[in-house]
Amino acid sequence: MDIRKIKKLIELVQESDIAELEIKEGEESVRICRHSPVPIQANNQTYLAPASSVAPAIPNQQIKPNNSDSESSYNDDEPHQLISPMVGTVYLIDKQSQAPLCHVGQTVKAGDIVCIIEAMTMSNRIAADKDGVISAILVDDGQAIDFEQPLIEIE
């Protein structure tokens, strides 16, 4: 089967409500399935990533390290990780302006858009969930990402 025909079939599935498409042509067959593990309700919504399980937020309290070696303790030196609220493809560059949405060393405030995750052809703006400075970008532009995958470190 011609690769152009396969690409056209993929586009057909992406542009429609079809969940699965199977085509048989002689002895050759192609099956294209769309999986939707995280339902998306509306286009261009801004999401705050869920709080990272690595650094729990406890307002107005200081967490002191435990002397016991058997229990893990919170380390203030560890940067906060912004994690993905969904499965999709992450974009670090704005498609319209071709400008990066964020970069290492950038100061961000909670609510600033730092990346876009495309899921099922819908763009979802992902906002920083705390004030700080971006210390690391853990994903590449156009990379497929999983649910709760760390995206960016903020100090």
From TrEMBL:
Entry function: This protein is a component of the acetyl coenzyme A carboxylase complex; first, biotin carboxylase catalyzes the carboxylation of the carrier protein and then the transcarboxylase transfers the carboxyl group to form malonyl-CoA.
GO cellular component: acetyl-CoA carboxylase complex
PROSITE patterns: BIOTINYL_LIPOYL
Organism: Shewanella pneumatophori
Keywords: Biotin, Fatty acid biosynthesis, Fatty acid metabolism, Ligase, Lipid biosynthesis, Lipid metabolism
Classification via CDD domains: biotinyl_domain
Domain Lipoyl-binding: 73-155
Region (Disordered): 58-77
Pathway: Lipid metabolism; fatty acid biosynthesis
GO biological process, one term: fatty acid biosynthetic process
Protein's UniProt name: Biotin carboxyl carrier protein of acetyl-CoA carboxylase
InterPro entries, A to Z: AcCoA_biotinCC, Biotin_Carboxyl_Carrier/Decarb, Biotin_lipoyl, Single_hybrid_motif
Taxonomic path: Bacteria, Pseudomonadati, Pseudomonadota, Gammaproteobacteria, Alteromonadales
GO molecular function term, any single one: acetyl-CoA carboxylase activity
